[in-house]
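[SOLVED] Need 3D model of a two-part complex

Original post:
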Amino acid sequence: MAERLKPEDRAAAMQALTGWHMVENREAIAKTYRFKDFIDAFGFMARVAIVSEKIDHHPEWSNVYRTVEVTLTTHDAGGLTELDMKLATEMDRLAG
Amino acid sequence: MAERLKPEDRAAAMQALTGWHMVENREAIAKTYRFKDFIDAFGFMARVAIVSEKIDHHPEWSNVYRTVEVTLTTHDAGGLTELDMKLATEMDRLAG
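Solution:
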């Protein structure tokens, strides 16, 4: 099972990400993606869904037309782990 | 453009739907779907996405693993229209 990141490792991992922020009152990270239209937004979600299932780590996310809001945390670990950083990195790659 | 439903038409349309409820403080309807797992939940979303784009009417929705929460309203009309009832009916069919 993935272990919670130490504060210094979490800080370093956050430095390597762009556009992600810590969620208030919760050990989680979040980002809002905006696309050209619904097709682009849902196309992104479909790509992420496949990767999520493959690595067995899934986002909390919502979609309104061309906007996708994502929150990542590792429920089993009660906070942020390498899995969240890995999925965040993959999402940025898939949104690119 | 779709016109807002009259209260009596809205009530009749709601009667024909199962598991949908009016949202508080907003002219919108909502439903929570629960599936077996993420693959089933996202498979449902993919089917709905295609129908949504086809009828040019899109849900506000969120997903956490096997749960999909949906809210429908017609922003352009400032409330509920036939489009929402049509999409709700389609979603129930696609979830079945």
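Edit: Chain B touches chain A through 15 residues (CB under 8 Å).
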